[in-house]
Amino acid sequence: MMVDGSFSHTFDTAGTYDYFCMVHPWMSGTVIVEAAGAADAAADAAAADAAAADAAAADAAAAVAALEAEQAAKEAAAAAMERPSIDAATYINASGASVTSITANADDDSVIIVIDAEDDGELSVQLHSKVIKAFDDGSYFVLIDNEEVEFEQNGNKLTIPYEAGNERVEIVGSYAVPEFGTIAMIILAVAIVSIIAITAKTRMTLIPKL
């Protein structure tokens, strides 16, 4: 073939074909012929491999997050267990209104008394140090339906005026123990988080190596 000349050939069969120059035998090359669609198949395989790698990375991140959540839940449970649980209604007396429930709220260091007030009146509450403790100066503060109100205090006895229609009396101090139900919910949360973490770790072991 002359300089600047051209030549064309159509291969009918996929394969590898070597060629060389008969005049200059050291000048050689190779033609690789792929079957129709082979390039697309290779691209699809590469995309599938990339997707599998992304999924493996996502599962690994989920497993780490689950382990961190499990540890955080265990630490929260341990912190809560440092406060002995108690039934607040056993130690606190409230009179002067129709009392629906008395519960301790450890998160806000308070005692919540739910009342059914048909008329104005005064709620007399005898607190107990096993449930709630006063601030350093011996005082508490009181919220009725989330509004701070004035009240009379004589030691651990509080006299709290309320109005008809009021429902929620919250006495806030420096410390309150959790209810039995709170501890149970924390233990349940730890169990659920542990199951999630174990599931995530199990999924990791089932991921095929690429």
From TrEMBL:
The chain crosses the membrane at residues 180-200. This is PEFG-CTERM sorting domain-containing protein. It comes from Marine Group I thaumarchaeote. The keyword Transmembrane helix applies. InterPro entries: Cupredoxin, ET_Amicyanin, PEFG-CTERM. Keywords: Membrane, Transmembrane, Transmembrane helix. NCBIfam families: PEFG-CTERM (TIGR04296).
